[in-house]
Amino acid sequence: MDIEAIEEAARRIENHVKRTRLERSETLSERLGTNVFVKLELFQKTGSFKIRGAFNKLLSLSRDELANGVVAVSGGNHAQAIAHAATVLGLDAVVLMPESTPKNYVDATRAYGARVELSPSIADAFAQADRYRSEGRVFVHPFDDDLVMAGQGTLGLEIFADLPEVTDVIVSIGGGGLMSGVAAALKAKKPAVKIWGVETVGADAMSQALDAGHPVTLPAITSIAKTLGAPSVSDATFRAAKEHLECVTVVTDAEAVATLVFILERLKLLTEPAASCTLAAADKLRAQLGSHVVLILCGGNLALDDLCSYPR
Fold first, then answer.
1. Which of 147, 152, 248, 302 could disulfide-link to 207, CB 3.0 to 4.6 Å?
2. b/e 269-307 (16+ beta carbons within 10 angstroms → b)
3. What is the pLDDT of residues 168-201, one digit of tens each?
4. Domains (range + CATH), the chain
5. pLDDT confidence of 296, banded at 50, 70, 90?
6. pTM of the predicted protein model
7. Nearest to residue 207, comparing CAs of 179, 182, 184?
8. CA 115 to CA 106: how far, in whole Å?
9. With left for phi above 0 and alpha for psi between -120 and 50, is residue 171 left, alpha or beta?
10. Segment (H or E) for 110
């Protein structure tokens, strides 16, 4: 992915997304012994970064191409992003979600205007999407799409614009679209910046792919970090990880929850485990981090019932 595509995406979506804040955290800086900044993407429209890629994809297509509407598969934030973007643009949207999807995600997706259909599994949802695509709907993949990845990469442009001194960025990996876009943007602007990937045990498709030397399919997603629950990364995101990442740090659910609680109590921010895991990874990486570290808090769509159910 080239920087021109990401810069074009930034121009295309600027009237539809928020330019989220990048703030230095005194608390996290003391904890890690360096300057730590948080990218507050949990305050993005629909509560996560996914809206960037959704709008970039849909705004890149003609009205004729979109005449039959769109279809998406998601167990989390991509669903809400597509629902909202489609409604804003006057498009009909169907979102296919696994039955295990937390109720708050299903309810929010419907509230944003999409028709939601539940499937027994994420694999079944993708199979159903093929039928809708054959009927003329545009399928918007949650991560394996150049336009979606370019949209997510606009977040990286914002980080560099606000903090040219950035030395390290810690980013969560689900399917790898966010990581791919952010890494491409930042490496183009500042090749020396280090990009560190994070996954949780039970949602570690990228870590296992890197160990195997090719993408693999997880038999099940067992992590509580549901929004990291891609059963497999794509060839494109796998290549991006090999090219750009220093490593992928895999943390436990318990570590993600512990840092979630710390962020909530000290920074007054309620994140998803998929976001708080960046701090858990930073704890493990602290000896390797430079002078200006950014944690991407990628989403905050967490239901109170789920929060209360997490083991402490």
1. 248
2. bbbbbbbbbbbbbbeebeeebeebbbbbbbbbbbeeebe
3. 999 999 999 999 999 999 999 999 999 999 999 9
4. 3-50+146-309 (3.40.50.1100), 51-140 (3.40.50.1100)
5. very high
6. 0.95
7. 179
8. 10
9. beta
10. helix 103-111
